[in-house]
Amino acid sequence: MTSPVRFERHDDVLVIISDSPPVNALGAGVRDGLNEGVSMGINDPAIKAMVIRCDGKTFFAGADITEFGKPPKGASLQDVIVMMDSSEKPIVAAIHGTALGGGCEVALACHYRVAVPSAVMGLPEVKLGLLPGAGGTQRLPRIVGVKAAIEMVAIGDPIPAKKAAEVGLVDRVVGEDSLEADAIAFAREIADKKPIPRVRDKTVAPDPQAVEEFKKKHGRRMRGFDAPAANIACVVAASELPFDEGLKFERTEFVKLMEGTQSAAQRHLFFAERQAAKIDDVDPKTTQLRPINKVGVIGAGTMGGGISMNFLSAGIAVTIVEMQQDALDRGTGVMRKNYEASAAKGRIKPDAPEKAMGLLTPTLSLDDLADCDLIIEAVYENMDVKKELFTKLDAIAKPGAILASNTSYLNVDEIAAVTKRPEDVVGMHFFSPANVMRLLEVVRGEKTAKDVLATVMALAKKIKKVAVVAGVCHGFIGNRMLSPRQIEANKLLMEGATPQQIDKVHTDFGMPMGPFQMADLAGVDIGWHRDPSRIESIRDALAAEGRWGQKKGAGYYDYDEKRNATPSPRALEIIEEFRAKSNLPKREITDQEIVERTLYPMVNEGALILEEGKAQRASDVDVVWIMGYGWPVYRGGPMFWAQNEVGLKKVVEGLEKHKFKVAESLKTAAESGSALK
Ligand code: 3HC
């Protein structure tokens, strides 16, 4: 096999070039090539300095994640880095694109770094449940100090070249289009400079205050994760231990994380997210996408406004329709306020609100949607209302326009059937707040055209969503799996558990909230028949008493004016009364039973969804639950958790113990030890 690394001599400078698409990951071939190139440079008397650069869209974007967990092959990254570091001839890293993880570590082991203005550098390993395992935690703080290093390794966000130059990570920002020439010229400038600067020779002062402040500020987002603390410990070690001992500490911590379940889960999510974008029977290379330059959104409420913001932020014009002027004004006012709040917090550029709002056309007339390439309705969740609207849209929309419903439960085929163009109809289920939540369920109707599906999936990426294809079924993937959880949680209340106990099991598991905290947030009155004399469930009883959740200061919990929850004696009384009426005995419920009865049925439902072909793959189900419902990232999603943390056999046993009808595919996979597909 030919090496992905080639060497070019420019008189006394050897340029070592990696060409390993798509991201120049540091796989065995690349490491071997680097090894060979650097040895060649060291041993050739005609060479005075070396430049390492990459072809394609980026400098090394990190270790090759697909190699993790497999037997090691070729030169190790650590060995290559030691050789580079100790070279008596200076090496210059010439950076473009994203120098991430192991790629950033290669750059740090070089003696100099030059970068184009658009480059970014970072150590994002923490996002994979890991830490930089090739000296990054020891070298980075020696350049940028403990405080900045902790920010970079424990959060994992990259920094742009300009900032990198300010903090000393980059020695020179060079021309965007002249990286190689500028890097060679730079190499000649420094070729004879002695001593050669090596990061390992520097020291860094401890900064316990910065460590404490970071932990205080970010404690909440790090809750449950192992990797951030390990990253911080390594940076602290860099400030306390000699370089080689620090490296050993880093290695031990790296191996611990690599062998743990959290990193496996987070790496699973990395690939799952990318896999989700792929449609099994649609070839992106041969599918012509429909151009989407203008989007129509019907409904200027919370959902419609949030949906519109996604497109406006991506520079796509939006026409937004409401029925009444005051509702339209209110909706667009909220959008403007949201943008302005983001600008005030420095999350977007100061002129971004004007730019985005300048792309918005508010109107009261559906006819104004005639020139839209995609129309998304976000109106009341009612089949008759949607059918009426789609009938009208069919008459208004131009040929080839995509007609989408933001329904969260309804049958997209039934909606499509009222039009003469069911092939142009698709579901686009956004999650609230739609301008923030990253998940988009793209519902593929029976007749949805392949190019429509492919266009919507590509558009999702453009508006920075993670899109998952779902088939038509009640609640699609996410809400369908939510349903058995809610049903069981309610049954458990009847049998003697409290809302606090059930919610705590879920939050201890890592969910942002439990079923009853969620009900209080969404509104206990949602779906209530509004007849106080008809009390058929605890929820009815709460709703009938005006305990509609957070908005009323009372629901399953009591709330103060800042919406802080406390257990509610009245809600517990209502639960007791309701249980007494039903003549159900009260018993002690264990936390384990709550797990088995609320989480295992979700896995079962996920398996049914896969059996019915309503999701393309098990990892898509995981993406939905992580991105849309806050399933803890470090547990990899319900299907990954069931297979890798609990074990399918145990899940099946738990379901059978509690008399659930177990999905056939789940039983088979548990018996055969195979994976759910
Ligand atoms: N290893 C293996 N494959 C990788 C990879 C990596 N480090 N990074 C990306 N890929 C693959 C993706 O899976 C995807 O494959 P696909 O086309 O088959 O789905 C393809 O490359 C393109 O990736 P993206 O779709 O993500 O492309 P983008 O252009 O949107 O983003 C990127 C590029 C910013 C580089 C992004 O891919 C990324 O963030 N990659 C991971 C970076 C990272 O985490 N590096 C650290 C790795 S761990 C490490 O280095 C340990 C070390 O300390 C020892």
From TrEMBL:
CDD domains: crotonase-like (cd06558). Keywords: Fatty acid metabolism, Isomerase, Lipid degradation, Lipid metabolism, Lyase, Multifunctional enzyme, NAD, Oxidoreductase, Peroxisome. Monomer. Residues 294-470 form the 3-hydroxyacyl-CoA dehydrogenase NAD binding domain. This is Fatty acid oxidation complex subunit alpha. Pathway: Lipid metabolism; fatty acid beta-oxidation. It catalyses: a (3S)-3-hydroxyacyl-CoA + NAD(+) = a 3-oxoacyl-CoA + NADH + H(+). It is found in: Peroxisome. The gene is fadB. One of its GO terms (molecular function) is (3S)-3-hydroxyacyl-CoA dehydrogenase (NAD+) activity. In the N-terminal section; belongs to the enoyl-CoA hydratase/isomerase family. GO terms for biological process: fatty acid beta-oxidation. Residues 475-559 form the 3-hydroxyacyl-CoA dehydrogenase C-terminal domain. Pfam families: 3HCDH, 3HCDH_N, ECH_1.
